[in-house]
């Protein structure tokens, strides 16, 4: 159910995930799913945690990455599954894969002596979610001119610098980590 739910969300966004759609994909009656889930909310939880657990980059980062590398893997997961940002915004993820991600973030923050590791983990996760949410609009941003008569400096910089969401993410993450006393090396 997790894989099917994630696939439906990847293909059609939040509105595509229904008990009926999952049942149709699985070739079963929708009523048979109620023995395993209570509502479509459970399908969102399964999809969210399942997609994270199947992400090879996140899996590798959970075992061998530095904190910046782990956060970059999480950001990329969110970009690949834009619906995940919305689901996390209205349902606190508590599946085993998200708990592992949270624990690893906190462990890495504790290891480097970060002030307030839990708060910093929330800050970094929320930053990744925000950046991943706005990443798809980067192309529109680049194509939308800025009027130099009302914002000359912004217009000049906008014309000179390409908008790269991954660079924006890394730059901001490094600033956040530095502020928390975490080496970004």
Outline the low-pLDDT stretches: none
In total, the number of domains comes to: 2
What is the mean predicted local confidence, pLDDT?
92
Shape: flat
Cα separation of the termini: 41 Å
- Per CATH, which architecture of the largest domain? Orthogonal Bundle
The name of the CATH superfamily of the largest domain reads Tetracycline Repressor, domain 2
- Which band does the percent of strand residues land in? under 5%
Output the CATH topology of the largest domain. Tetracycline Repressor, domain 2
CATH class of the largest domain: Mainly Alpha
| Number of beta-strand segments | 0
Number of helices: 12
Rg (C-alpha, Å): 19 Å
The amount of helix comes to: over 70%
Largest beta sheet, briefly? Answer: none
| Helix/strand order, N-terminal first | HHHHHHHHHHHH
Structural class: mainly alpha
Question: Which key terms come to mind for this protein?
Answer:
185 residues; mainly alpha; Arc Repressor Mutant, subunit A; Tetracycline Repressor, domain 2; 2 domains; 12 helices
Task: Detail the topology: elements first, then pairings.
Blueprint (H helix, E strand, L loop, with lengths): L1 H11 L6 H8 L3 H4 L6 H15 L1 H9 L2 H14 L1 H9 L5 H16 L5 H18 L3 H6 L8 H9 L4 H15 L6
Helix pairs in contact: 1-4, 5-6, 6-9, 6-12, 7-9, 8-9, 9-12
């Amino acid at each position: 159910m997790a894989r099917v739910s994630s696939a439906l969300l990847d293909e059609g966004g939040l509105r595509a995930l229904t008990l009926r759609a999952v049942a149709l994909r699985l070739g079963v009656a929708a009523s048979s799913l109620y023995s395993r889930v209570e509502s479509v909310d459970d399908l969102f939880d399964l999809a969210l945690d399942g997609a994270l657990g199947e992400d090879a980059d996140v899996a590798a980062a959970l075992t061998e990455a530095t904190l910046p590398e782990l956060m970059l893997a999480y950001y990329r997961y969110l970009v690949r599954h834009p619906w995940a940002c919305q689901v996390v915004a209205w349902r606190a993820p508590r599946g085993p894969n998200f708990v592992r991600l949270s624990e690893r973030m906190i462990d890495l923050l504790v290891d480097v002596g970060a002030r307030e590791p839990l708060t910093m983990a929330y800050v970094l996760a929320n930053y990744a979610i925000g950046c991943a949410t706005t990443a798809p609009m980067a192309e529109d941003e680049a194509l939308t001119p800025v009027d130099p008569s009302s914002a000359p400096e912004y217009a000049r910089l906008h014309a000179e610098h390409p908008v790269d969401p991954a660079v924006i993410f890394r730059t901001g993450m490094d600033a956040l980590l530095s502020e928390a006393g975490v080496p970004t090396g």
